[in-house]
Design a protein that fits this description.
binds cyclohexylformamide; Rossmann fold; 12 helices; GroES-like_sf; binds zinc ion; Quinone Oxidoreductase, Chain A, domain 1; 2 domains; about 375 residues; alpha/beta; 7-stranded mixed β-sheet; globular; NAD(P)-dependent alcohol dehydrogenase
Amino acid sequence: MGISANAAICRSPDTPFTIEEVTLDEPRAGELVVRIAACGICHTDMAVRDDHIPIPKPIILGHEGAGTVEQVGEGVTHVKPGDRVIISFNSCGDCPNCDTDAPTYCYNFGPNNFSGLRADGSHTVHIGEAPVQANFFGQSSFATRALAHERNVVKVPTSAADIPLEQLAPLGCGLMTGAGAVLRSMAVRKGMPIAVFGTGAVGLGAIMAAKIAGADPIIAVDVHDARLELARERGATHVFNAKGDPIAKIAELCPQGLAYAFDTTGLKSVIEDAFGLVAPKGILGLVGASPPTDMLALNESALMGGGKRVIGILGGDSNIQGFLEELIEHHVAGRFPYEGLIRVFPFDEINEAFHAGESGEVVKPVLKMPE
Ligand code: CXF
Ligand code: ZN
């Protein structure tokens, strides 16, 4: 029979999203239907729209969904109809990394998040009789309803009962990635210096988390002064415009080097310069998306001799069941103040919302679905 919904359909890089009526499958075992209240927009949505991440089209994007559970499939026990939930990335739950609480590195990440299909190859959504790619990050939340999975849905704790879902939705990707990189992947220590390169949602998430961890100094680098101001308001102790030789300024401020350098830009020259600033035993964490052909040039003696680590980071090593609750607790207590980074757009202004995110006018556009 199926479940009807309205979804934003992406047909090509240069056609606007159009909101169309679709039919979702009834939930299978381990799946559930969420009435979507809001969904954040992330650069990965843009990367798929622009074919930088190739998934066939038409496709329903959206991977920072939040809403209310409507219906659960067989075996789903940790949430029930009526529960408020945040939806994040999906994982298989049955590989060496899922088994050791590292689901962002799931061996089956692609089929569960980036195939546009269920991991078994079946479609989850149709327009009339025609299948459409969906199940993006196990959700496809640019829609009024989404078919999600037991593993990628987190129940909103009662401490956040008063927080509207449009404010909780964006926790499931960029903010979590930045915060997780600091609190999990690099496990930043109190009193140690960190520099964050790039102050979008991921970089600002990292800065707020660095303040929670007690890092000192907390240095933010970006090309936009307005972003640096946001960074300062959220915990950066020093801000340097990238156009004004930030590397020399950081070297002067931290003559012993940085315990942590965190790159969200994906720019080869920024990463190589940041490596030169890392102190003995320091960590350079990489989260920015780089052109696929880029190769880093790092001095091997400096890497080995200093016991330095260069680590790739996905999703901030977040085990979402647990970590998202932790972030919500920080938010409720005022320690993770991301609310000012959000601008809410009505669902039917999705194209305007994308534009506001791409132009840099808004750090985190969030779509609000009609009630
Ligand atoms: C992802 C990458 C894999 C883990 C969760 C977040 N990034 C999305 O934009
Ligand atoms: Zn994302």
